[in-house]
Amino acid sequence: MLQRLASEFPELSPSKLRFLEDKGLVRPSRTEKGYRKYSDADVERIRTALEMQRDRYLPLKVIAEYLDDRDQGGEPERPGSRAPSTATMLPADVHLDRPELLRRAGASAALLEQAVQTGLLVASPRYTGDDLTMLRTLVELERVGIGPRHLRSFRAAAQHELGLIEQAVPSAARRGEPGGGHRDVERAAELADLLEIVRRTLIRQALADGGRPRSSR
């Protein structure tokens, strides 16, 4: 799998493949000894997913739904194929003013203010694509009664995870390694993906156990 896609996606790694599998982007079969076995269709799904993530900045959930619909014989519209104003996400370096951020996110000014107050967003005259993603997510959570005030612990947890990543990936710039900064960024992103898998797995385990965290004993 890696060899077949390495030329197109040099950042693809075994941990990234496992992450995509955890997200439902690919479901490889297994050999009798438990090794993953990727079919041509699996390779094509991964290629399409990586292209859509790279070129259209789409969330993996949206990509997975599109691929599933297509595999079931449907002809869904390719996400992000319309004009940029209706795309699901924007590049992180695209900047939006406050009214445009609220419009694209479908959020109220009150929700944005709550997000700023709880540290989930930073008040600014210009907002990025990542800010838009955050605010859109908060809109969806608000619909089920989860507001920014309920997510304060997530910011603390993110800071803790950032500390773990910084310990595991010391800056190549400080070590004087040419080109190491880019590799550090890629490795840090991979570690962030792995930490997300741990978090999601713990939640699923707790749900399977009736909402009770498993004992460490």
From TrEMBL:
Keywords: DNA-binding
Listed Pfam families: MerR_1
Signal peptide as annotated in the record: none
The keyword Transit peptide is annotated on this UniProt entry: no
Ranges where the record places region Disordered: 68-88
InterPro entries tied to this protein: DNA-bd_dom_put_sf, MerR-type_HTH_dom, MerR_fam
UniProt biased composition (Basic and acidic residues): 68-80
SMART domains in the record: HTH_MERR (SM00422)
Limits of the HTH merR-type domain: 12-69
Coiled-coil residue windows: none
One function term, GO molecular function aspect: DNA binding
Domain of life of the organism encoding this protein: Bacteria
Gene3D superfamilies with a match to the protein in the record: 1.10.1660.10
Protein name: MerR family transcriptional regulator
